Amino acid sequence: MDLPGPAKPQTTIFTVMSALAQRHGAVNLGQGFPDESGPEHVVEAAVAAMRDGRNQYPPMPGVPELREAIAAHQRDWYGLAPSPEDGVVVTAGATEAIAASMLAFVRPGDEVVAMEPFYDSYKAAVELAGGTIVPWRLDAPGFRPDLARLGGLVTERTRVLLLNTPHNPTGTVLDRAELEAVARLAVERDLLVVTDEVYEHLVFAGSRHEPVAGLPGMWDRTLSIGSAGKTFSVTGWKIGWATGPAALVDRVKGVKQYLTFASGTPFQYGIAAALGSGREFYDGFVADYAERRDLLTAGLAALGFTVYEPQGTYFVTTSAAPLGYEDGMAFCLGLPERCGVVAIPNQVFYADPAAARPEVRFTFCKPRAVLEEGLERLRKGL
């Protein structure tokens, strides 16, 4: 029987690698979830909410305390002013915010230009809305955006520019000049911009995260997406958000009410407390991850990988070509048995995931002892 609608769920590389990790007792340096739990004061705030009986449906846009905290965060960090009443919507992680925004803004036949390689849900969300994703390639070794190429990708069918900065998987952080060029094009072509900023607080020395929504002419056409999972090591709570002008946020709410309606009531109170953490928390968070980044990148370089040092996120892209592997997929599929380590082939983040590429992504969101164990296993196995 020929069934209409989206294709059935696919077995992703992340599912495959998790199974291989279990089978071979591998150190998982591929998938982006920390081994540690979140800060104690954040966990305790969620526990207190549960004990206080805050376990039923929250308001669809999110509990008022969290919406206030998100609006204050945008104001204090970036000088933006979303209204907590109608300029903020809490979502089931950033993934729902991305899907809801594509379903809200993309019509059948529309095109969405997205930075490639890209988080795998981007393409699926665009296609669920009936649109087509148009890759804006970031090429090695610099993984900087080609701004001249971007202008040629925009057509009369382009509806949305989907940005991701800090960028997963390459770690690129768009600088002011690059953001200004994107903003000029968006204004000239009257485009909407959806920007995924979930790694906004994980940016290392020498780089700075700046939201495109704050540039001239951009506030009314930009939806900014954030998440608590990466910053506070609570990825399983799935608390994300979208902020911006009421006209855009209302469209996202109109979709969200038929996706999850609402979720994670006690966790929302926990994240409201988390966002109120002082600057010393964020400074310590970045400093800790900078040390982990340096440990992993130096170790991988010593093993012979070409290492592209990230400006942000907790991922590092490498090339296995110097080790004799032009196919990162084959390299990663054999790695758990050969070395007892899991990594992710970057080719799964491209519009054509079947095309072999030598790039491989590792994560350093693991304790130092785990990173050291992974490197030792790679040294012995390779």
UniProtKB/TrEMBL annotation:
A GO term, aspect molecular function: pyridoxal phosphate binding
CDD domains cross-referenced by the UniProt entry: AAT_like
One Gene Ontology cellular component: cytoplasm
Cofactor annotation: pyridoxal 5'-phosphate
Keywords: Aminotransferase, Pyridoxal phosphate, Transferase
Record's protein name: N-succinyldiaminopimelate aminotransferase
Family listed: Belongs to the class-I pyridoxal-phosphate-dependent aminotransferase family.
Top-level taxonomic group: Bacteria
Domain spans labelled Aminotransferase class I/classII large: 27-378
